[in-house]
């Protein structure tokens, strides 16, 4: 058995973390075991499941790319754990820091994985671009969730697409299950507009509330189901209240039953400023859920016919609302064959990644 070190921020229920867990659950763990190097000292959502499957969790301090102390701690870790011949890094632009330390410590297979096609234009943007350009210098392998994410992160360099695959069978639409979940949410007679994502500027919840406000003008009994959590949640709750929507917006927090909640939705709305290939979009389509997305979401994620409508971020909220309301009476259908044909079935995808790790380990041993 080989052990592969996954380098992440922490293992909460975010998109890349959920993708990693999908692969981990479907690995032959007699052959390939995942361990995790995390950059937070609290227990995250997936930690206990990782431990139950035989994985290890190692904690280091928060990533400060220019800190000599941080780099020394990272190198001390790699020196103390020579068993890791493969390091798979999921820190987007800042992945070059861990990759450089791993290279200096003799780690032979160093994978950089792009999960996004852009970054927030905040005070850290220029610094992140500096480190992004260094990634190909220290990585031996480049992975991306889709073409836009790969082209942006690894400009001019060849990369491999690793699909954000899911357990397709879990998401098959069931009318009976939908009725049960809607009863639990007290939305039996409502149009349920859904969104899954952390409360972060990238996900554009502020604009989503503007869209929903217009939806209520068209369909007064509409409800907005927001699944997830994050630093921006309080701000969005306050905006919902200021718009007089506090009784119509449901904040579920972080949930482990997203597959069930998707059953209860009528339309999935995703107005992100940018994305890689969001796992939630694959899940929504596997559920047969009509989706209205922004032009900031790559076309890579559209893997079904007739389910996804793309709108411009510059379009007015009222125009978005008209398209959303038009989905109201659509019949839910099974699109699993399309999901599988596009390469997003986790059983097949996990086997391919498992074979990749084994081959690389064999080459370097």
UniProtKB/TrEMBL annotation:
Database matches in Pfam families: Glyco_trans_1_4, Glyco_transf_4
CDD domains xrefs: GT4_CapH-like
SUPFAM superfamilies (alphabetical): UDP-Glycosyltransferase/glycogen phosphorylase
Source organism, top-level taxon: Bacteria
Gene Ontology MF terms in the entry: glycosyltransferase activity
InterPro entries: Glyco_trans_4-like_N, Glycosyltransferase_grp1
Domain Glycosyltransferase subfamily 4-like N-terminal, chain residue ranges per copy: 14-169
Name assigned to this protein: Glycosyltransferase family 1 protein
